[in-house]
Design goal:
The chain has about 70 residues and is mainly α. About 65% of the residues lie in helices and about 0% in strands. It is elongated.
Amino acid sequence: MKMNTPESSSGGLGSYVRLQRQMHDALRKQHPEWIERNGDCPTCESYESRFVELLELFQANEGKSAWIEAHFT
């Protein structure tokens, strides 16, 4: 399994890696038809990549919210 990690991740990296492993295992268990003969799972990797994209968007928005609160409240 290729581990995708958000570039801006910090102290929660261990938790993130555990969550990604749980997601990976759950997808493979729930959808064995996605697993190729060589053990690869392109659909799982696609889901994992999208998860990283969503985390990065969340982190970016969280940073914007903190900046707005600091400057306008």
